[in-house]
Amino acid sequence: MAYSGEPLLAEDLLFRPVHSLIDQSLHSRMGAETTNGDGFGIGWYGEGPRPAVFKDIEPAWNDSNLREIAAQVRTSMFFAHVRASSGTPVQRSNCHPFRHENWLWMHNGSLSGFQHYKRDLLTAVDPALFAEIEGSTDSEAMFYLALTFGLLDDPFPAVARAVGLIEQVGRAHEIPDPVQMTVATTDGESLWFFRYSTEGRSRTLFYSNDVNKVRALHPEVRALRTLGADARFVTSEPLRDLPGAWNEVQESTAGMVRLGHEELRPFQPIAP
After folding, report:
1. What distance in Å separates the CA atoms of residue 256 and residue 263, rounded to the nearest whole number?
2. Could you check whether the bond before residue 97 is cis, i.e. omega within 30 degrees of 0?
3. By the 8 A CB rule, do 202 and 181 touch?
4. How does 119-143 read in b/e, with b if 16+ C-beta sit within 10 Å?
5. Is the pTM above the cut of 0.85?
6. How many CA atoms lie within 13 A of 23 on its CB side?
7. Weakest-pLDDT range from 33-37, 40-44, 138-142, 179-183
């Protein structure tokens, strides 16, 4: 789940929605796994451009430190992720979001057969960035490939080039459908998101509608009164069942949110 908008307490984003990310960690309705208990992470922006991250291998629903922190953190850009491992170890360095300078990145999905071509992907990472890789996940490898291909300059083509390389390398290792992903990334001001899979059956992803319109549709929902006009959410599953509040990101689509403005465009990998 990603939030962009007027500063809010993290607990209002993490714990209070009916189908919050904490609830999704136990009772996912749309995910590949119904339980996501292999760790969690949050990232937020406060003083200065570099975001803070807090990660642990405890299940998100059972971590008292997360509740303590969420009650005090107020931020205008917030990332949160609950993990179900696709085969790599349950360790802190493998929890999302991943960070580079002022950027955050998180991924839902997997790179099929990653262990068979992991070396080929990692040797394509810019040597100046390679030493920053801490964990062993396909998600972090994808992040550093996107950084190598220019994420800091323009995320749309950078992610497309990273995905194009992964598909080429995966198919060279006889993996027919290497990429399954929804991705969110931010520089602290703008939020980019992507939904794509090689087979065309991607994990679900949603973005919220204009708050004023949703508030007019549902004046009885008290939680909507705390949201400013620029508030936008991007999430794997809707946080609350409210007709008219959510739009599904379509297959092979990328988007950007900044100060309440959103942009959607088709997404296609760019081959090396």
Report:
1. 5
2. yes
3. yes
4. eebeebbeeeeeebbebbbbbbbbb
5. yes
6. 15
7. 33-37
